[in-house]
Amino acid sequence: MVNTSDFDNNLVDKSKLWKVITASSVGTVIEWYDFYIFGSLTTILSLAFFPKDNPTAAFLSTLATFGAGFIARPFGGIVFGRLGDLVGRKYTFLVTLILMGGSTFAIAFIPGYKSIGLLAPAILLVLRILQGLALGGEYGGATTYVAEHAPDSERGKYTSYIQTTATLGFFTSIIVILSCQALLGKNAFSEWGWRIPFGLSGFLVIVSYFIRKNMQESPLFAKLKAEGTVSKNPLREAFASSQNIKLMALSMFGAIIGQGVVWHTGQFYAQIFIGKILNVDFVTTNVVIAFALLLGTPFFVIFGTLSDKIGRKKVMLTGMLLAAVCYYPLFRLMATIVSAEGTLINGTVELTYTGIFYLILICFSLVLFATMAYGPIAAFLVELFPTRIRYTSLSIPYHFANGVFGGCAPFVATWLGEATGSIFSGIFYPIFWAGTTFIIGALFLKETKGKRLID
User: Which keywords describe this protein according to UniProt (predicted)?
Assistant: First the structure.
């Protein structure tokens, strides 16, 4: 049991801490898997749920539906952030887990456009919005829960394990998709086999629920509850203080927007750019991204740990600056490699092993920028806000910035390419926001490293 009268983050039992991290991370990986399986199957879903007479419009419509989940995230942050500050971290992310798993599982059973017409994309949109609402509550809960167990001097290190979960969820979705396609064949997978990865969510959520069910409440929240000082209206309290509003705004424009566009561009838009714009075959595209993710994932922890030593701000802003400077030449280099090392066969480009290797290295560089921007940000956000309204205060700016600016980056970048006729024009969207966030953060962001969480 937690001694709520004299809790010290620096005296936490490390074996218990690892149990907390494992239980939180497993569930969060599954939630990210659920959320991003949609993005990994965008091309196939566009043919299943939208008219096939205009493939580009269908693809953009699917990306817009994908983006709707991101737009729903801030609303999930408001609803579940408030719930997490009122009743507890553990209870809230059990609810979000079930909501996410249920809506993802249901996508597996939606009839296609051929069967029910426009009702198909309408149902898909509703379920996608439910996914976004669930994720809006999950991240803040998992991050807060782990951070409130971690030692002050190693918070960047331990919260960075939660930061790996988004990329691991994306990686898992790619591996499941490639495995299903290999077992079923390309045609069967495109016709009906794509439903299996969504259906698998039901089993994964049940496993995660029982892992999380036995977790204890966060010690800092338990302390507030024992003292009777839990916020009665965390949402109103978060916006009642001009100082807290300033912190939410600064965290968003000085850190999270840049992190959001760098993460989604380096992983999702890179996948779209290679597969849809450069027309590389489906399997090769996903193999390239999967290897880049696998190589890059450990760096979330490396940079999270580094932020405990040199500060959150330096690490995060360096990742954003590198992205702003390097995106254009790296995306041009990808196009050059595909042109030089690719052969058009049956409507798609097949690459030599040399070409695949070079693309993996480039995509690894893109993921590396994301690990720098994303690895320390959980510790930074937790340290920024007071315990009694922490879940609410960090969830709102985080999910607004990641949902609206980051999550919509693939759609906006793809649309810009179509609108201008240049395959490189889309990349200026993330370049602009990464650069803008770097400037604001460099000028106004304060360091939070080492801050104690007890208010």
Answer: Cell membrane, Membrane, Sugar transport, Transmembrane, Transmembrane helix, Transport
